[in-house]
């Protein structure tokens, strides 16, 4: 079930890495391999109790297995364990990080940029909003009511006023509500989400950018989930315009550990203006010779960062370049098609309720019921029944104000409704659509 062929490739690469050209004196570290083996077997037994995240029948949370080349490159690098704070701690891995990040920036049309890798989307968004708060001091931060909860939490951490904006019937920021709020004159930064966590919705970036110049706004895009979809050809009407508009925003966050096929945690924050670097700089009692540009640790809030994450990302992008319509993007297109096929089946079945078509690869639906409370109970029951047949889904609570427009026949006896949600992130989900549907049919009864 788990891929192991790559272990031979790893052994070959390790032997190559160990051929040190500097002819250092040999040394040996004593290792109790027998005890380590016992512990590893114990770990393997414990991990058996986890969900089968790599399998196509796992269609729940945002969990995508890393590509074998990423897993192997990460493991290989761990033998020397570089720290990408500076070239002193990770000479090669720091250089590879700059190359890999430049490729991601180029994906959005930025030849000039400032950016680096982070340990998570939360930290990446924290950095972007910290810079925004320094450039727009005392100003309010706006985000969608369906934006990730981390934005309100980060705002509290930074001491910035946070104001959520209502969403329309498709889970997008309501343009008129944004405009009314911006016209009050106290907004400094607008967070636009491309791929909301709950529904995968894309906020209307081109229309929101129109407010940027007239109201001196910073536009930060949280594309942690959806950013890579800019590479997909043949999008639905309006989607290409949204992704093409990314080149005009001030900052972007994207998570390679989601659709970029990387191990956790590997996120990336990008700034269009390279001159934001001095906002990070600080006095340091130690120096790092041999660098003619700011150190990666000096332009990030995190100082020590794993060089292995950078090497794994670089290796993956070397194997699967970030080209529109290329092999990497075709995998993303398969996920989008898998989501659309599941949505079409659900929409055409009398036993289910749908909300709106998926924009990316997240599908939200529910068993048909007469009230919000009964739908919520049935959703939870179907989640359990499907898991008994090895199909793993997830749940999302959506506000009645969003769902009621799509379900006029439902009585909303509570303020929210629990729906089923599937992230069909794996390209294999396209081929496993029939198996997933058949299990749903049996689990529904």
Describe the structure.
There is one protein chain. This protein is 38% helix and 13% strand. It has 14 helices and 11 strands. The protein has helices at 6-17, 33-47, 68-78, 91-107, 121-135, 150-158, 175-182, 205-215, 239-244, 307-319, 327-347, 372-388, 400-403, 433-444; strands at 114-118, 140-144, 162-165, 187-193, 218-222, 251-254, 267-271, 352-354, 362-367, 394-399, 416-423. A 7-stranded mixed beta sheet has the order 1-7-6-5-4-2-3, sandwiched between helices. A 4-stranded antiparallel beta sheet has the order 8-9-11-10. A hairpin with a 7-residue loop joins strand 8 and strand 9 (362-367). The model has no long low-confidence stretch (mean pLDDT 93). It comes from Thiolapillus brandeum.
What's the number of helices?
Answer: 14
- How many strands appear in the DSSP assignment? 11
The CATH superfamily name of the largest domain is Type I PLP-dependent aspartate aminotransferase-like (Major domain)
Alpha-beta content class: alpha/beta
CATH architecture of the largest domain: 3-Layer(aba) Sandwich
Topology as H/E string? HHHHEHEHEHEHEHEEHHEEHEHEH
Largest sheet: 7 strands, mixed
Helix content: 25-40%
Spatial order of the strands forming the largest sheet: 1-7-6-5-4-2-3
CATH secondary-structure class of the largest domain: Alpha Beta
Return the CATH topology of the largest domain.
Aspartate Aminotransferase, domain 2
């Amino acid at each position: 079930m788990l891929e192991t062929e790559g272990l031979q490739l790893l052994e070959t690469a390790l032997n190559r890495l160990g051929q040190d050209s500097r002819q250092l004196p040999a040394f040996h570290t004593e290792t109790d391999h027998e005890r380590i083996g016992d512990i590893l077997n114990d770990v393997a037994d414990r991990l058996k109790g986890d969900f089968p995240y790599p399998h196509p029948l796992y269609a729940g949370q945002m969990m995508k297995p890393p590509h074998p080349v990423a897993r192997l490159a990460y493991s290989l690098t761990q033998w020397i364990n570089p720290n990408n704070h500076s070239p002193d701690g990770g000479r090669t891995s720091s250089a590879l990080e700059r190359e890999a990040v430049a490729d991601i920036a180029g994906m959005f049309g930025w030849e000039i940029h400032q950016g680096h890798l982070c340990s998570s989307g939360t930290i990446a968004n924290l950095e972007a909003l910290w810079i925004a708060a320094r450039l727009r001091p005392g100003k309010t931060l706006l985000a969608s009511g369906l934006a990730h909860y981390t934005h309100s939490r980060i705002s509290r951490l930074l001491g910035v006023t946070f104001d959520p904006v209502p969403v329309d019937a498709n889970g997008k920021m309501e343009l008129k509500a944004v405009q009314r709020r911006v016209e009050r004159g106290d907004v400094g930064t607008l967070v636009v989400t491309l791929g909301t966590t709950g529904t995968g919705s894309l906020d209307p970036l081109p229309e929101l950018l129109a407010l940027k110049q007239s109201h001196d706004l910073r536009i930060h895009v949280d594309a942690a989930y959806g950013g890579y979809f800019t590479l997909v050809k043949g999008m639905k009407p309006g989607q290409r315009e949204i992704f093409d508009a990314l080149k005009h925003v001030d900052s972007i966050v994207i998570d390679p550990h989601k659709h970029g096929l990387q191990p956790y945690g590997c996120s990336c924050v990008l700034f269009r203006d390279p001159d934001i670097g001095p906002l990070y700089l600080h006095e340091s009692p130690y120096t790092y010779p041999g660098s003619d540009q700011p150190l990666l640790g000096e332009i990030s809030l995190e100082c020590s960062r794993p060089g292995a994450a950078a090497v794994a990302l670089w290796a993956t992008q070397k194997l699967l370049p970030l080209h529109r319509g290329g092999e990497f993007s075709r995998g993303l297109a398969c996920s989008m098609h898998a989501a659309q096929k599941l949505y079409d089946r659900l929409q055409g079945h009398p036993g289910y309720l749908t909300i709106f078509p998926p924009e990316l690869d997240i599908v939200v639906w529910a068993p048909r019921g007469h009230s919000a409370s009964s739908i919520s109970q049935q959703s939870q029951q179907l989640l359990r029944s499907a898991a008994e047949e090895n199909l793993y889904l997830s749940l999302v609570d959506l506000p009645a104000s969003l769902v009621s427009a799509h379900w006029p026949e439902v009585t909303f006896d509570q303020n929210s409704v629990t729906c089923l949600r599937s992230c069909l992130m794996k390209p294999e989900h396209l081929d496993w659509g029939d198996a997933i549907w058949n299990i749903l049919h049996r689990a529904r009864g």
